[in-house]
Amino acid sequence: MHHLRGYFPILNWGRTYDRNAFSNDMIAAVIVTIMLIPQSLAYALLAGLPPEAGIYASIAPIILYAIFGTSRALAVGPVAVVSLLTASAVGQVAEQGTAGYAVAALTLAFLSGGFLLLLGILRLGFLANFLSHPVIAGFITASGILIAFSQLKHLLGVSAHGHTLPQLLTSLGEHLGEINIITVIIGGLATAFLFWVRKGLKPMLRRLGASPTLADVLTKAGPVAAVAVTTLSVWLFGLDDRGVKIVGDVPQGLPPFTLPGLSPDLIGQLMMPAILISIIGFVESVSVAQTLAAKKRQKIDPDQELIGLGAANLGAAFTGGYPVTGGFARSVVNYDAGAETPAAGAFTAIGLAIAAVALTPLVYYLPTATLAATIVVAVLSLVDFSILKKTWGYSKADFIAVAATILLTLGLGVEVGVASGVGISVLLHLYKTSRPHVAEIGLVPGTQHFRNINRHKVATDPTVLSLRVDESLYFVNARFLEDLIQSRVSDGCAIKHVILMFSAVNEVDFSALESLESINHRLTDLGIGLHLSEVKGPVMDRLYQTHFLRDLNGDVFLSQYDAWKALAKSAEMKNAAE
Amino acid sequence: MHHLRGYFPILNWGRTYDRNAFSNDMIAAVIVTIMLIPQSLAYALLAGLPPEAGIYASIAPIILYAIFGTSRALAVGPVAVVSLLTASAVGQVAEQGTAGYAVAALTLAFLSGGFLLLLGILRLGFLANFLSHPVIAGFITASGILIAFSQLKHLLGVSAHGHTLPQLLTSLGEHLGEINIITVIIGGLATAFLFWVRKGLKPMLRRLGASPTLADVLTKAGPVAAVAVTTLSVWLFGLDDRGVKIVGDVPQGLPPFTLPGLSPDLIGQLMMPAILISIIGFVESVSVAQTLAAKKRQKIDPDQELIGLGAANLGAAFTGGYPVTGGFARSVVNYDAGAETPAAGAFTAIGLAIAAVALTPLVYYLPTATLAATIVVAVLSLVDFSILKKTWGYSKADFIAVAATILLTLGLGVEVGVASGVGISVLLHLYKTSRPHVAEIGLVPGTQHFRNINRHKVATDPTVLSLRVDESLYFVNARFLEDLIQSRVSDGCAIKHVILMFSAVNEVDFSALESLESINHRLTDLGIGLHLSEVKGPVMDRLYQTHFLRDLNGDVFLSQYDAWKALAKSAEMKNAAE
């Protein structure tokens, strides 16, 4: 039963669900639904899909996440970055507007769902850690910029395309002659209005005496107002006949049952993008979920989150949607509105289902420029270059990883950008460990503690060379220690003993073992003793299985101080140690 | 001048060159030349090139390496594994036997030389460390098997092809009907004879009273004898008319001046293989050079070796050769024969040039089966599965990397095999560091030394949780420590202080810094102090630039013992510590 509850978290919170939780969840659902209607249409537009796909992608996935997910406030559905990734991936296999495009989006959701589910069942959630915080921050910022530029065409009424900043700018430049002035006016006013709603409306309402809740709800309803006003204007003044592009016919009805395309060819082309979308979506979702859970001292199980998101994506694949994940904006709104359990998500799904059945004719005259404006205003809040300054001050390696991620995402597209970010972080880490810090150490007087002779006032002995190796020894740096000791002992001819203090050596792999053996042979030839100190348990366990310990010409000491006491010969040094 | 000598090591040994060194070098050169003539022809065959390419690849490269290389005994030229890699890479862009094939081999040598030179100038020799010892061992073993199977067609007189074991076996199976019995007899006898020369001839000659040097020279001349006898047999009995394939016309003359093909298309296709060949060739060459240098207490400069090998490959590209590197067999022979300086290599080049001018008509009737036999006997000595047993006993991660390298090299070819070996080693290393060992530690009584409470008898205090983090903290494991401390403090409610002993933390990157900040916030909320001890200098330097140290609710102690003295409250524990 316990095991079952692990896989169906709904069994935990469902048993204690009461009227109070119900009413809180209901209120949250109404607010989130109002916010989601224009947002879902807009993100579908960003993904290159018909507007209803955004609504469909918010219904089944939300319900499935409510059953399998562990976060109580996470709202699952289309989000900006994943929509952009979808457009980029699907754009490579099909033309926008074709049936093949929509089918490929379903396939992408299916593959992504399957991959997430697989990772969850294999408990491989730690893979997401390969995306470092700075790389994520850089990627989100660059994606925000890309998204904003990709929406410019809707705000100007021109037809441009591209998946990188240079492509988008070139394409916009080529089509600049087609600008539709009325579209520009609608788009400009909608953008300005939405920025004002975001920054200025809430303080103003509070000053006018509105309750915090009311002010909040009205602020969230801003995009709905923009949608309503611009739609009415187009309808009243027949602006669609004057070149303003509108959403047009949106089918009325519940999400259809759809089948993703599963030809080996399509799967082959979409597999890598699906893996990428899964990992990015998972990282975004888990960090939102953890942030919200921490506020209420609740816990998230990342491996179960993989299963929840996997189920949600499979749901999207079979109900006319596209890849989804837990979104930051919608989850925060859900949380702030007082959602207590995943049931709030289910009620939101019902609200959206009603909208899909009843309200779609109302958006016929909705100009795409308004949707573009809601996207631009939403994503520009994601753009934050402060990570560049923070990492520059702390670590140049992290800075390089962020800067490369931003530049490559803008210049070569989202997939290359994020993959390079991960690759560069890993390579820089390996590079750092390939030339480890090795400190010559001496005894801090009056203690049994040893520190770097260049940083601390310590006692040393010319016949004993004590080296603290500040890195695990493995193939990337195995030869480094060999060369270093070789050059150190050829410098100091008084040396009779070398002590390697292994307090920071967390691993000795097979290549490093061979290097240690060769160091031992060389020092034996030179009549110098090789000793180890403070070897950790797990490392010692390994070494016991080899003949290295038998061949070692010196000893292994429990502590560096023991080694020093046994080997330091000069009397004055001994005195200093006492 | 010193700087110049760094780039031209010839200026070092050239100044002191004397008659004694000259005569030693001369003797070595004669022995190596005799060995190299059949070997060069054979490796050219293995690479899919006309036989003279093997001789040409041994002339200019040897001279260029003598000028730029740092090893005194290394003999540069065609080697088995690089020949196999060449056949695999060039086979993908051109048909064997066409002019395009030979040009692509020149291009491969050119790209490889350029890449090595670039690495050398940028001092990037450490990149070779990414190939771990076990991966190299596994790769060499698998390559030896592949090479032996690729030569079976010559020993059987059939026409088969393929770059992986399944391909080779299938192709051999299909052509089994074409077997030429006379070829099988020649090939079988030559193989048996060469095995006997390698294993049994030297002991027998010594028993018969031959001097060690004479026995050695006669053993090295074994392949020449096989070549002479089989060539004569074919000529006398007209076996070439009975289906025995022979070497045929080999142009007489010095190496020609050739130009590698440099179309962007060809460069694009050969760039990755060239990088792979460069790195594998460099690793093989440097390990041979280091082994030989260590015996005479000489030194190798890996970055200058890159320049020497780069120059040698560029030389091969412009003189009708193909990629070369320092070979194990030829270098050992050179060393054993008493070579004192790189001049021995230059004399070998002269010997081979004479052979190219005068001796090529003599190999017209040489059966390719004899060449195949010399290859098979040479490469089977490379095959050594003991690395599997050794790594199995020591470290399963290393074992997995070796086993994968062997299986993938045999099953999918040399390029996939070695690239996967590197990738798998790196991923396994990252995986290990993603779940670091964290030991709860206590004071070893009577000392100031702290060890794992599960492995040693130590004193502890219920109000102080001391954790030794056995890994650098970076993005891959940043979140791990957060979760671990969270679960440890929620288990023990008596805990008032957490001390993180950082003796094994060699790096704290930006992601880990954010995790430490969040640990500090959570512990502060719970009224628990967070302290650090034994933070290394380089890590401390970084932390000083952040506000983490200001925000830290506890202290940073020089040693774990200081932290313990200051924080451990219970009197009996304090007593234990005194």
TrEMBL record, chains A, B:
Pfam families: STAS, Sulfate_transp
Start and end residues of each STAS domain: 454-574
Membrane topology: Multi-pass membrane protein
Superkingdom to which the source organism belongs: Bacteria
Transmembrane segments annotated in the record for this chain: 26-50, 62-87, 99-119, 126-149, 179-197, 217-237, 270-294, 306-324, 344-364, 371-388, 400-428
Places the protein is found: Membrane
Keyword set, alphabetical order: Membrane, Transmembrane, Transmembrane helix
Any one GO biological process: transmembrane transport
InterPro entries linked: SLC26A/SulP_dom (IPR011547), SLC26A/SulP_fam (IPR001902), STAS_dom (IPR002645), STAS_dom_sf (IPR036513)
GO cellular component: membrane
Cross-referenced PANTHER family: SULFATE TRANSPORTER
Protein name as it appears in the record: Sulfate:proton symporter
Species this protein is from: Marivita geojedonensis
